[in-house]
Amino acid sequence: MALQEPFNALDLAAAGSVVEGEFALAGFPRLRDRLATPDGAALVRLSLRSAGGVPTGDLAVRAEARLTCQRCLRPMRQVLESSSQLAFVERDDVAVPADREAIAGDPRRVDLAALVEDELLLSLPLIPRHGDGEECAAREPQPTGETGAGPPEQEMRRPFAGLKELLKH
Hints:
By secondary structure, the chain is of the alpha+beta class. It has helices at residues 9-14, 29-32, 112-123, 163-168, and strands spanning 18-24, 41-51, 54-68, 75-89, 101-104. Strands 1-2-3-4-5 form a five-stranded mixed beta sheet. β2 and β3 form a beta hairpin. The chain is elongated, with a radius of gyration of 26 Å. The termini are far apart.
């Protein structure tokens, strides 16, 4: 089975199949614009089985992506990982096991690439930034003045300093 083609979840779940492979991150249009560079691949494992006639699957996705740190605006590596318990149903109103997320659509034509892209988008950090133990240009020591004592003193402006006196009258 080619990963890029839709698969029949009913048949694969009845057989207790496992689908494994990888997708190039550059092939995900919604994810690509959030990456610093679209290098790398997403590793995917989908274990399928039938639960009460409903095809279900355990989806695990892992990728190492290059994002832009929002502190220093430089590229950084970020591991994106996600796991989901899914049930493939034709309509939202079909009963699914309580521990499963319903994926509505034709279970005979499931788009694994779209599921993987959704999982990666959901695993993106809200604000990408280097971790505490990593080098970040925003946390590097700032250059100091000639004496090494820090930046030259500036006179502090207090725009509302005279307001108290004006309110007395």
